[in-house]
Amino acid sequence: MVLNNQRYVDLGLGTQRVKCRVHDNFKLIVIADKKTVCERFPTPLVNRLEKHFLNMSSVVSEQGNRISEQLRKWVEEFSIVKGFEDIDSFKEGGTFIGYQEDTCISIVFHVIKQMYPNNHKLDKAEVVNVISVCKSELLKMVATDAVFRLKNSLLAIHSDVNELIEQYFNLRITSLVEYLERMVAIQRRNETGVHLTLATTHSRLLTDRDVDEFNQRLCEVKNKVEIMSLSLQQFQTEQEYIREIQVFLRRERFTKTVLLVQCERGEDNAKLVACARHMLEDELKERRREEATKINIFIVFLILLNRQAYGTKFASYCGGDWNTVHIDDIRSLEYTGMLPMSFVIGKQIYELFEGYQPDTKTFPTHLVCQKMKFTNCIQNAASRLQDQNGSEERTYDRVRDILNILQDIHYSDTFTELLCQRLAK
User: Fold this and answer.
1) What is the DSSP string of 151-184?
2) Most exposed among 40, 56, 129, 348, judged by the fewest C-beta atoms under 10 Å?
3) Which parts of 226-365 fold into alpha helices (H)?
């Protein structure tokens, strides 16, 4: 409304209303998801606003849309296995973790913007380069089990996937501590800047004890490095979260150069993660304005996702300054006793128990490696056995007895050798 040549708008909170004076050129822009607008916005408000539908296809050029369509087809053929087209885990969302309908076009938009900022029309060679970089970005989001079935996918019908598998294992991150070590290596080269990463995983998140072990391993390098770990679920208010971010950012000397922000049930907390990222970016911008010197910090958002949560609204690809990766197991091979995936692929079960000699620096002996594997999977394996009388106590006793044998200093080696021999047959 206009009164005495001044413009006013009604601001309402619940039942309270107040008229607020605004600038003559005041404009209100509401950005909301289409589904939210249709289901939750009051009809009078929707009718009053001038409506526009915005998606990534309207932002990217015609050429960028064509590249995006090629990527979408590649993603679909990569995911679908011949004869299992109806299985959700063999579709895009179960193969590329955090994949959404606009993921491909978002990647194309950011890659073109980064590689060719002058917005000229790309020639054939430049298009090939863009597609190659986009596929590399998508491969960082792939779950390892999808690579195991890649030779049976629709993509394998007309393409040689062996080179793609090799590229995946070259890009693959085996554990979170390995990724942090890469960050430390960047810091040791005196490369300044803010390094932002969103990492998804299916394994349980890190405990305080895990963080302490990671700190010990990272402190083996010359530069002192320490992880500051936060959980989004620990904060009751937005102010508490911002205060902790400021504690990390505003220090005279960085004793903790890695900030690890963890979040459980990412498929249910997609909006919470997005909100936390935006608030972090605002604080980083404020820090850059306050200090003329360049800062050198590393921030990792670690998001736990349910393996069965296909088709959720969680989008792992952020674009901009964010790097997106998927880490199947954030703990190192020494902790889990698992074999390297590059060794396992293409082999039968019995072949895994013969001929593998692990690096003595990583595993002290072959028996130690096998005992760790058996210890980690014995509960799941024993639970699959069904007794005739259906007694649960017998299952508990079986697990306890096997674990006791594996830990016994007199019988564990002999038991492990015999078990490996049986499996190898």
Assistant:
1) GGBTHHHHS--HHHHHHHHHH----HHHHHHHHH
2) 348
3) 238-249, 270-290, 333-336, 341-344
